[in-house]
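Backbone-to-sequence.
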């Protein structure tokens, strides 16, 4: 269990999908900030399970400031197997250099815009997001240069006395390093959910499951969530 929240700390908004990366990112942020949790429903297939993980993680971290926002217009726009039921969630290919069908076009820009609005209203100084570049599925809006550019947008588009900066503390880590960091910080990883297509038992074969399972396997640890199948991805 993560430590109880500290008082009299600066406030930070943490984007919490309910997944492993956002869980560990929250644990990192909790070392120096009071946390406010933001969850976005963008019409993803496993939103009910992700939202449950968000609520359970918020309870575990003792977070009182919570906000759920519906951005399901992204599902209406389509173009992603996460939001469009006519598109198949493809099995993982961890050697592929192509952007997978699960990419939601420009999702992080939509999410960050909402997060900045809330952060400005509640007086948060930081905005934490669990984006991963080196060991991710190759999403273009998870690259460091994307967040550098968005920090410039924030500085230009908010009030003159507003100071909000995006923090991406795990962006250069491999999945096994993220998991070991989570273990070190006692992040409640057993409450997180990463599967793209199943809400009861994780499928074990989508991109997100494969990256997560490979991370646990390479870290020499057992993933605490249930799977339908657990291939060897090492």
């Amino acid at each position: 269990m993560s430590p109880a929240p500290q008082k009299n700390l600066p406030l930070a908004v943490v984007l919490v999908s309910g997944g492993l990366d956002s869980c560990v990112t929250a644990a990192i942020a909790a070392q120096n900030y009071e946390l406010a949790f933001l969850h976005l429903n963008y019409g993803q297939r496993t939103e009910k399970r992700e939202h449950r993980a968000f609520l359970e993680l918020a309870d575990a971290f003792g977070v009182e400031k919570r906000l759920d926002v519906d951005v399901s217009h992204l599902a209406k726009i389509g173009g992603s197997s996460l939001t469009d039921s006519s598109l198949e969630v493809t099995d993982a290919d961890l050697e592929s250099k192509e952007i997978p069908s699960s990419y939601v076009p420009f999702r992080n820009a939509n999410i960050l815009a909402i997060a900045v609005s809330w952060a400005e209203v509640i007086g948060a100084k930081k905005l934490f997001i669990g984006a991963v570049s080196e060991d991710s599925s190759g999403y273009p809006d998870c690259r460091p240069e994307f967040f550098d550019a968005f920090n410039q947008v924030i500085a230009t588009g908010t009030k003159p006395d507003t100071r909000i900066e995006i923090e991406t503390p795990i962006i250069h880590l491999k999945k096994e390093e993220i998991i070991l960091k989570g273990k070190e910080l006692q992040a409640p990883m057993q409450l997180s959910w990463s599967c793209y297509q199943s809400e009861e038992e994780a499928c074990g074969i989508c991109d997100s499951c494969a990256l997560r399972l490979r991370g646990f396997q390479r870290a020499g640890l057992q993933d605490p969530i249930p799977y339908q199948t657990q291939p060897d991805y090492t």
